[in-house]
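hiii, so i know i said id send this last week but things got crazy w the move. better late than never?? heres the sequnce for the chain we talked about at the cafe, plus the structure i predicted for it. fair warning i was half asleep when i ran it
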Amino acid sequence: MLLNTIKPAEGSKKNRRRVGRGIGSGLGKTAGRGHNGQKSRAGGFHKVGFEGGQMPIHRRLPKRGFVQFGQHLKAQVRLGDLGSLQGDSVDILELKAAGIIADCVTSVKVFLAGKLDRAISAKGLTFTKGAHAALLAVGGSSE
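okay and structure toks below
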């Protein structure tokens, strides 16, 4: 194969449609724009969602809901997931390395789900009341 012999696949390139070029083309006279109206004229366009001056639907409907800023910076972890990690101490960096939480997370809350079989010292994590009681029950600690 030579560079000067390369061609696109047969039928992959189409000629652009030439409108307003006579009756025989099928798109003569009005050039496919219909007869009258704003869209038939040069420069006749309007914004997406424009309803002819009527209040558009995205302004008629009320705003709803609230998305908390920084929500993606917080994470929740099961107490049982802490027990699956190697080592006696757990912090945010170890949870990120294990793939339990995302890299962008800055604060972690541990909730009571699953069982903890061994003592763990947790650093930089917050606990729910039940999770903290379960951690202390197996001899663990939190800082």
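btw The longest helix spans residues 129-137. thought thatd interest u
miss u guys!!
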